[in-house]
Amino acid sequence: MKKFRKVLDGLTTSSPANPGGSPACGSAAGTPSTAPTPRELEIQETLMSEHFQICKTVRHGVPYQPTALAFDPVQKILAIGSRSGGVRLLGRPGVDCHCQHESGAAVLQLQFLINEGALVTACADDTLHLWNLRQRRPAILHSLKFNRERITFCHLPFQSKWLYVGTERGNTHIVNIESFILSGYVIMWNKAIELSTKTHPGPVVHLSDSPKDEGKLLIGFESGTIVMWDLRAKRTDFRIYYDEAIHSASWHHEGRQFMCSHSDGSLSMWNLRNTAKPFQVTFPHGKTQRDGRKESCKPILKVEYKTSRNSSEAFVVFSGGLSYDKAGRRPTLTIMHGKAITVLEMDYPIVDFLLLCETPYINEVQEPYAVVVLLEKDFVVVDLTQSNFPIFENPYPMDIHESPVTCTAYFADCPPDIIPVLYSIGAKHKKTGYSHKEWPVSGGTWTVVNSCVLYVTNLQLLLKLKTSKVFEKPKSGDVGRSAELVEEDPYAVQMISWCPQSRILCVVGISAHVILYRFSKHDAMDLMDQLLLYVCMEDVISPSDTENTPSFSDPSGHSPQPQPPSPRSNTPDSMRDSIPCLKVKDRMIRMPPGYQAELVVQLLWVDGEPPQQITSLDLNSAYGLLALGNCNGLTVVDYLQKTILLCMSTLELYGSADPFQRLTRSPRKNRQSTSGTHAPCRSKSPTSESRENSFSRSRSSSVSSIDRETKEAVTTLQFAESYGHKSDTLPTPCLWVGTSLGLVLIIPMSIPTDEQERLEDPVTVAPTGTVLMLKGSILRIGFLDCGGALINSPYEVWRDQHAPDHPDRPRKRKLVNFSPSSSQEASGDGHLAVVCSERQAKVFFMPSQACLYVHNITESSFVLRADVVSVCNSVCLACFCANGHIMTLSLPSLRPLLDVNYLPLTDMRIARTFCFTNGGQALYLCSPTEIQRITYSQEMCDNLQEMLGELFTPIETPEAQNRGFLKGFFGGNAQTFDREELFGEAAAGKASRSLAQHIPGQGGMEGMKAAAGGVVGELARARIALDERGQRLGELEERTALMMTSAETFSKHAHELMLKCKDKKWYQF
């Protein structure tokens, strides 16, 4: 048998056919099979290594631990920085880009080069980075590392190429944005303050140029010192020494006054005519006490002072400032407009906020129309144009983390009608009261070329479903027991099984319950059915125990010695026997359109112990069956007839065919399956057999480890049209069961085909003891036909059970059955079964159960997730290992095609949420608030540039407002000056080389070149070079056109002015 198998697999077997010495396949007892060996299969495999490459596609959700915020008012692009060094760039829906600093240092501040397609980031490692946003994948052009000083604040004036950088020592440096080199012009702290001052003013917390004169720079120090620095004269115009620390400052657009926020919760207004003291000090939230003093308030961390054209009153928006005695009050954003004060309470602490204004010019009326508020775990935009200040409806999925994510499921190639249906139902349950205006962050361009583009780049919330509505709320007396048994939410979701074709959804909860939902477009008033059952474990002894304990050879399997009572049998816990974990509502419930609960299955307490959590689940709509397993056994439920077909311990499933010859010892009492209606309930937190604790547990299927195992968990379930016996000639409905000991059982079923008989006659489930063996816990089972094509499970076409009856169109079940025997006339009878465990993958031929191919996936680690997926019109096995490797294997030959160390340091969140799907796609929860989608398809990586949105769109910069001749004559216009004359090398000299180090960036091109690989690498590099050249030519053309337009406009205005003044006398001006 071994010799023939080697001949059959000579060209494609990746490892020895029988590793470890354990029987790779065979009869129920694990001995070699005597069934006829199948003829050699001639399957043409088309997948090669060149078809695979790992690449991140897009990230969804609010950035985790955000730190900074910036907005380009012309391009209308928003940037969010995070503590992990990430930068999210958001525009219109579909324009969503994530960038990452290699250092991982926190982003302190963001500054857009307005309408230039560039962004400056200041990081906690005292490095400035210039990002190029004119390409779909932004990249760093330049970096500047400060060696001796720490960066605290940055300011970039509009249409300037000189960046002001404030430091912790109180100095202000100036950086040329084009060359990213320090200027020799430095504003030293000891020159900014008076010589008589004995204390250091502290770090620079604010920098801004005067709207009235760009040659004047306002510098705010943390201690409360404010300096107006004359850049031309290199001296101070005035100094202000205030008693309270300064957190921020904001100018009036006329440049005659500015406002500061302080640590005592006050706002101070200063006029440039008299800087001896503020002309107004207010405590917006501080009340006057009886003794005449103001009550102490929290610091106002930021203030924005903006004027409006339609109102003489300005907008003053600030965060913080509440009094300390209001304990427990949520974070607030205060909007002051005239005498009206509006306080907006936020769900999370405020990180930063920005006012969105109509003009980018600081010396014009700002006209704010919205305020963007960045929270620790959310991101909201408030409409300032309406008196009630409603928020805009966020088009991005920013509330993924509304409750902690516990599991994910990824479905591709869904029926085309399912998304519009889910969206229409979900839209009815959306919150109201949103602003009716369009989303203000509308920059960038994104066009849907085909459905694949939408599939890759966009994510939209369709529907929300709360499983807790199925159960009664716990009474006050049950709170103690709930805290004792459940460390987390008792309704937490552990697994999801969804059939898109039949629209049936199954949800597994942490409290050992399963809820089955059906989709309906109509309301329903119904009573939920409930099934209660035991799944008990048999105490077993291994062959090594029987050698030393001959007294256990009694055929009954019971020990002749009386067993000691259960430790909990005499405790109050024994009163909890035969009760479920949660109490299902026992009354008629109105169910709105959408997913409506039809059946609840709950496991019961046994011997004073809570039920073990469910570890595996599968649903088949064509069969009308639901299978679930845990570390004690297996249950099969007929959800059409609301009955339990099978409820057995894992050991009982083998019968006499147990390959390890384990014997039953003292089975627990009351082992039965029962169906009931309702009972009081509660549950327990995960046990040592849970999936999370199995992440770091050593695995082995050797007999020595089995001696130590007391539980054999059901780890995977799969309904399929297959062969339950070697002698079968036609496929029948079967349930494949995989266990934690690396064993696979096949359970055939007899299901009536007639619709009426199916609802009345019982379904027969008969375990046959058929066993296949692998190393490690079984993770995934898939099926291929003899041509190598993926066999999909049969399903039922969706029908609305609550729709009104039509005499002409009776509602009948329509089944779609992908039977292997009906589609393989050319390839012969039979099919292939692909079984993947934590360490090994095998391909079996059915019905003979002969092992055709074997591959040892890993020896030093173990597989966390595996799936049989379709890629490039073919099929492969995709695996994600605990050491962070992503692998793909060809099918059926199991040749390694890809092995990339993608995530070297995995954590439990990634291990729990990582999942594959068809089309070379996968996703995982990269942080508690973000979902990262990736692709392992080379074709997808090559086309990703065309699928992503454009961040930069060529837009003409709006012209500055003409303020009139009289204002200019009397000095009302802002004064301009040439910064190049002051800060250039010719005037200011060179900065010290030891102060900062310039690091040239890759500009995006080299990084993309390094990422390109395979056969298409050269073509990709050539295309990138052409794109770069075309981009530069396009920029040159744009600048030339803008210069021509500006020249024509100037000539026109000069000619009009000449004609207007031609015939006027001098006294007429």
UniProtKB/TrEMBL annotation:
- One GO molecular function term? syntaxin binding
Q: How does it sit in the membrane?
A: Peripheral membrane protein
Record-annotated V-SNARE coiled-coil homology domain positions: 1004-1064
Biological process terms in GO annotation: exocytosis; Golgi to plasma membrane transport; protein transport
Question: Which is a Pfam family this sequence falls into?
Answer: LLGL
Disordered, as annotated region: 1-37, 545-577, 662-709
Gene Ontology CC: plasma membrane; SNARE complex
* Cell compartments where the protein resides: Cell membrane; Cytoplasm
Ranges of compositional bias, category Low complexity: 12-33, 695-705
Alphabetically sorted, this entry's keywords are: Cell membrane, Coiled coil, Cytoplasm, Exocytosis, Membrane, Protein transport, Repeat, Transport, WD repeat
Q: Which SMART domains match?
A: WD40
- Principal subcellular localisation of the protein: membrane
Family of this protein: Belongs to the WD repeat L(2)GL family.
Name of the featured protein: Syntaxin-binding protein 5-like
Its source organism is Cyprinus carpio (Common carp)
